[in-house]
Amino acid sequence: MIPDIERKSPEEIKAFQEQKLAETLRYVSGHSPYYRRIFEKHGVQPEDIRTLEDLARIPVTTKDDLQQYNDDFRCVDRENIIDYVTTSGTLGQPVTFALTEADLERLAYNEAISFACAGVQKSDVLQLMTTMDRRFMAGLAYFLGARKLGAGIIRVGAGIPELQWDSILKFRPTYLIAVPSFLLKLIEYARQHGIDPDQSGVKAVICIGEALRNQDFSPNKLAAKIKSGWNIELYSTYASTEMSTAFTECEHGQGGHHHPELIITEILDENGTPVPDGSIGELTVTTLGIEGMPLLRFGTGDMVRGHTSPCRCGRNTIRLGPVVGRKKQMIKYKGTTLYPPAMQDLMTHFSEIDSYVIEVSRNELGTDEILIKAASSKPSEALLQEIKDHFRAKLRVLPGIEFHTPDHINALRFPKMSRKPVLFIDKRQE
User: Fold this and answer.
1) Chain center to CA of 266
2) Segment 211-236 mean pLDDT
3) DSSP states of 14-32 as a string?
4) pLDDT tens digits for 67-118?
5) Closest Cα to residue 15, out of 56, 52, 57?
6) CA pair distance 408, 406, nearest whole angstrom
7) Measured between alpha carbons, how far is 97 from 84 in angstroms, rounded to an integer?
8) How far apart are CA 294 and CA 281, in angstroms?
């Protein structure tokens, strides 16, 4: 199930997207209070933008813009809204998105072709290990995508290894949709209760929320630990509420595939200029075919690499590498630029570490300080020294590292009303 446009040449894909862009510009100019103001302020007429390169005439829309003018992005009357979702508020207050019937259909189509990218077929059964409640888009998208594809779905929700294994053994799903680190808890539960994961019938997991690969697409420490305990295929997927679109790996594991019928992508440097192929920049997107709250040149805040070489699967679309980090989470530490995922990958190396959080703050000199707080079932000076040596070897700098009780770490990782575990706490704005 590869859409025809994804097999076209780059030139054909570009021409197709420019046609869709013209339709989107006409729509937002007629229906979006926010973008009408932007066009007027910058002297832009929709017909002035004929190519993807012309998009540079429109300023980037930021998360702050979405928070400050949230209602002004809505392009439909209230009676046409079918569903309300909110972002998880990773870097600030959550933002509300209003979806129409057509938007939900688009969301289902996106997830269906994304599942197909990871090899899911109508004959498969997926077990959903993420919430569908609390105005969360992801769980809804997975459910709608499975229905669109015709596959079965088991809505178990997040957490509770015992319940997950009960469903796996009873219903025999072939795919799981889960946060990768939770798979380690499933493996440990199976080990303690005499369950052989390799005999469960699960053949693959579509992994959300955490990276599985290094920047060269080799498996990272987390992926290696999962595979050592469970012989299953792992597929990375990257998405956000704002773009209502996913980038999912195919069987070749060389980055998440772009769906050009749904979204225009730019990867920009700090000056708003496209970066060279394979260089790191901020993913900036223009959504196509959205009625409720379309976005033009929305800066996701995610720092990524784009790859344009053809994939062996037959798709000719751009592929996104693993997210390097969040733009606002960049840390300047002792002359080195760091992002939290690099430190998270190093902490995953230690089986003795049960949980942790990374805190960054500013010292009296105005420079960044990093403190990693960890919980371990076997804390010791030897383990602490081993962690320090590992950081020096891999990152060439050493953050502060402390052991704390599991209860203290869990209180930091799961603040009230959070829908996701918090691994990074930024105190620089306090």
Assistant:
1) 16
2) 93
3) HHHHHHHHHHHHHHHHHH-
4) 899 999 999 999 999 999 988 654 456 789 999 999 999 999 999 999 999 9
5) 52
6) 5
7) 6
8) 22
Say which residue, 223 or 395, is predicted with more confidence: 223
Percent of the chain with pLDDT over 90: 73
User: Positive or negative CA dihedral for 162, 166, 167, 169?
Assistant: positive
Cβ atoms < 10 Å from Cβ of 336: 11
DSSP 8-class letter at 213: B
The token duo for 343 is 């430190």
Neighbours of 216 (CB within 10 A): 8
Distance of CA 399 to the CA centre of its chain: 26
Q: Which residue in 143, 119, 318 sits closest to 205, CA to CA?
A: 119
| The pLDDT of residue 205 is above 50 | yes
Q: Tell me, rounded to whole angstroms, the distance of Cα 183 from its chain centroid.
A: 18
Task: Give how far the C-alpha of residue 92 lies from the chain's centroid of Cα atoms, to the nearest Å.
Answer: 17
Closest of 289, 285, 219, 202 to residue 27, by C-alpha: 289
The neighbouring-strand residues paired with 280 are 305
| Residue the block writes with tokens 């320090």 | 388
End-to-end CA distance of the chain: 49
Question: What one-letter code names the amino acid at 164?
Answer: Q
Structure tokens at 414: 């799961």
Q: What is the pLDDT of residues 152-170, one digit of tens each?
A: 999 999 889 999 999 999 9
Cα 268 to its chain centre, rounded Å, is 18
User: What pTM was computed for the model?
Assistant: 0.83
Give the residue carrying structure tokens 């197709």. Answer: 16
Please report the pLDDT score of residue 111 as a whole number: 97
For residue 35, give the H/E element and its range: helix 33-41
**Rounded CA gap, 169 and 172, in Å?**
6
Tokens linked to 153: 């779905």
Contacts from 133-140 at CB under 8 Å and sequence distance 24+?
134/419, 135/84, 135/85, 135/86, 136/85, 136/88, 136/419, 137/85, 137/97, 137/107, 137/241, 137/244, 138/208, 138/239, 138/241, 140/83, 140/85, 140/107
